[in-house]
């Protein structure tokens, strides 16, 4: 029972919920960028290179070996640089969006801090209350003045 209670407290913390929401949004955003790369950018790049599909842009290191019956004895070894290029473009897009979000967040934070600083400077400082020692010394002084008079 204690384990269940601790787990429930852990899950209900705000930062865990924020993290879970972030992971879900990141997964959805990953799908969007993958679609953008695969459905928009890669066809353009394929068209530029004259390939039908980016995955067709491969370098064959060793061709497949086929026996007399037409069955593949050894698979071909290929370097799939078309898929690699698609993955790099996907990464760059995600990194760019994260950069823009962080830059916007930092700008908003700097603006909020500047506003807070301006408010602090504009507000007149109230005179500081005398400390307890100063109050006691003032009372002693006043008593001594009254006694001497």
Offer a concise description of the structure:
The protein is mainly alpha-helical. The chain has helices at 2-11, 14-49, 81-122, 132-148, and strands at residues 59-62, 65-66, 72-74, 77-79.
Q: Quaternary state, please?
A: single chain
Largest sheet: 2 strands, antiparallel
Poorly predicted residue ranges: none
In percent, how helical is the residue content? over 70%
Give the helix tally. 4
Strand content: 5-15%
Q: H/E series, N to C?
A: HHEEEEHH
- SS class: mainly alpha
Side-by-side strand order of the widest sheet: 1-4
**Spatial extent as radius of gyration:** 35 Å
Distance between the termini: 78 Å
Q: How many beta-strand runs?
A: 4
Mean pLDDT: 82
The coarse silhouette is: elongated
Tell me what the structure shows.
This protein is mostly helical and 149 residues long. Helix content is 70%, strand content 8%. It contains four helices and four strands. The protein has helices spanning 2-11, 14-49, 81-122, 132-148, and strands at 59-62, 65-66, 72-74, 77-79. The strands form two sheets. It has a two-stranded antiparallel ribbon. A two-stranded antiparallel sheet has the order 2-3. A hairpin with a 5-residue loop joins strand 2 (65-66) and strand 3. The protein is elongated, with a radius of gyration of 35 Å.
């Amino acid at each position: 029972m204690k384990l269940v209670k601790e787990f429930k407290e852990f899950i209900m913390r705000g930062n865990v919920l924020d993290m879970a929401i972030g992971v879900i949004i990141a997964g959805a955003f990953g799908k969007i960028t993958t679609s953008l790369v695969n459905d928009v950018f890669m066809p353009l790049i394929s068209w530029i290179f004259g390939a039908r599909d980016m995955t067709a842009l491969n370098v064959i290191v060793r061709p497949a070996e086929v026996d007399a019956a037409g069955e593949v004895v050894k698979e071909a070894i290929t370097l799939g640089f078309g898929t690699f290029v698609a993955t790099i473009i996907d990464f760059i897009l995600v990194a760019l969006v994260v950069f823009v979000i962080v830059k916007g967040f930092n700008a908003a934070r700097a603006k909020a801090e500047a506003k807070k600083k301006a408010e602090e400077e504009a507000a007149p400082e109230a005179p500081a209350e005398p400390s307890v020692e100063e109050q006691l010394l003032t009372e002693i002084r006043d008593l001594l003045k009254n006694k001497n008079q």
